[in-house]
UniProtKB/TrEMBL annotation:
Region: Disordered, residue numbers: 313-337
Highest taxon listed in the record's lineage: Eukaryota
This protein's name: Peptidase C1A papain C-terminal domain-containing protein
A Pfam family the protein falls into: Peptidase_C1
A molecular function (GO) term: cysteine-type peptidase activity
Peptidase C1A papain C-terminal domain span: 48-265
UniProt similarity note: Belongs to the peptidase C1 family.
Organism: Adineta steineri
SMART domains (alphabetical): Pept_C1
Cross-referenced InterPro entries: Papain-like_cys_pep_sf, Pept_his_AS, Peptidase_C1A, Peptidase_C1A_C
Length: 418
């Protein structure tokens, strides 16, 4: 009988669902969905800023509750970020729609089960079927194994990702992905000490005693920045805004660059305007997010075992019958403030920005870019007509540069390095 895994806090008895991400055994079938990000790198390591932080451009953090939808939550956050960068407005896409269709690709049985999914399955589902708004297929976890209605599929067909790029487990490459404006989804092996981040936001590096135990879980998250001062990635979780630092945590570079602990790193593209310049770069990396808890301190060690990982079968009382689990907060209200759920426009609204997918491998050395040279290209100011119609956000310029195989019909200057 399938088991459900939870990270259970000894202090609060809260349970957080684990093992919603299944390590992928294959790459996506389509070539545009299995690109290597290394061939798209723009910045050398010495050109990267000390800090990147997307949190101001992210939609509100949500709570996956007691089902294994962490992969869908992570990709929903990424898709909402891409949409917000295109039109300046918050959207709320259906996590259950993504989760159902990812499992339908992964699982061989006719009836899907709440047993998690692969990132490959979710990527293929987002490219083939797309996603609808959460107001159309709400996050009612009692319907976790139900097929979305036909209206959901009809709307979702207009809102798909176009590309997916695999990011290697390499610190410079992972930071470059974020510096170029792309969050990335990843799987992480975690232990009981991960619960320390519930109150501090700081994830400690697992020690040898933990990693040698058989008790561990896996979880999918979304990286939305990094801080060299903290030696940590800024990561969006899916356990609600009351967890961690308003729903976010800080995971050490050492943790996420360990291939035994981190796996399946992917970033997705929705529109051809997915080059966002340097508006999320920060030169004032003065805050050390790790200062609130030293992994080797007495404080950290005495609390290292305050949480355990437990398994329950599908007939346990902790099932999907209702949404009011102990850790399920106000984020269940999927008609969130400042979120638009009007029907989207046709993708033809964005056709003027479509570009070729045939990026060439990075070659040569780029000069150090000026910190503010792209600022004027990110002025999203007028969305009064339709929150999902992206007004022309960029002045005419060649978006990715001639070094990547594109040609331009414009006569105005462009930046050849982006």
């Amino acid at each position: 009988m399938p088991l459900k895994s939870f990270l259970t806090s000894r202090n609060t008895s809260q349970r957080f669902r684990l093992n919603g991400v299944i390590p992928s055994s294959r790459l996506p079938n389509k070539a545009q969905l299995r690109q290597n990000f290394r061939s798209h790198v723009i910045y050398r390591a010495d050109q990267l800023p000390p800090k990147v932080d997307f949190r101001s451009d992210m939609t509100p953090v949500e709570d996956q509750s007691q089902i294994g939808s962490c992969v869908a939550n992570a990709f929903a956050g990424a898709y909402e970020y891409l949409t917000k960068k295109a039109n300046g407005q918050n959207t709320d896409v259906s996590r259950l729609f993504i989760y159902y269709n990812a499992r339908a690709r992964d699982q061989s049985s006719e009836q899907v089960t709440d047993s998690g999914c692969t990132l490959t399955g979710a990527i293929e589902a987002l490219e083939e079927l797309g996603t609808c708004l959460e107001s159309l297929w709400p996050y009612d976890i009692s319907q976790v194994n139900s097929r979305p209605n036909d209206q959901s599929y009809q709307e979702a067909s207009q809102h798909k990702i176009t590309e997916a790029l695999q990011v290697n487990i390499n610190l410079d490459e992972m930071k470059a992905c974020l510096a170029q404006g792309f969050p990335f989804t990843f799987g992480l092996k975690l232990y009981g000490s991960f619960d320390q981040a519930a109150t501090t936001g700081v994830v400690p590096m697992p020690d040898t005693n933990e990693t040698e135990r058989s008790s561990h879980g896996s979880h999918a998250l979304l990286a939305v920045g990094y801080s060299d001062q903290s030696n940590a990635f800024i990561v969006r979780n899916s356990w609600g805004e009351n967890w961690g630092d308003q729903g976010y945590c800080y995971i050490p570079y050492q943790y996420m660059t360990d291939s035994n602990l981190c796996f399946d790193i992917w970033t997705v593209r929705q529109l051809a305007i997915n080059s966002f310049g340097q508006e999320n770069w920060h030169s004032d990396d003065t805050i050390d997010y790790s200062r609130s808890m030293d992994n080797n301190s007495y404080y950290g060690n005495i609390h290292r075992d305050r949480a355990i990982i437990e398994n329950f079968d599908d007939n346990d009382d902790y099932d999907n019958s209702e949404n009011n689990s102990p850790n399920y907060g106000s984020n269940y209200d999927y008609d969130r403030n400042n979120t638009f759920d009007d029907p989207w426009n046709s993708p033809s609204a964005f056709q003027d920005f479509n570009q070729s997918r045939n990026d060439e491998s990075f070659q040569g050395n780029f000069p150090d870019p000026d910190y503010n040279q792209f600022q004027q290209n990110n002025d999203f100011s007028d969305f009064s007509n339709n929150p999902f119609m992206a007004s022309a956000p960029f002045q005419d310029y060649q978006q990715y540069g001639s070094d990547y195989g594109y040609t331009s019909s414009y006569d105005t200057p462009f930046n050849p390095f982006f």
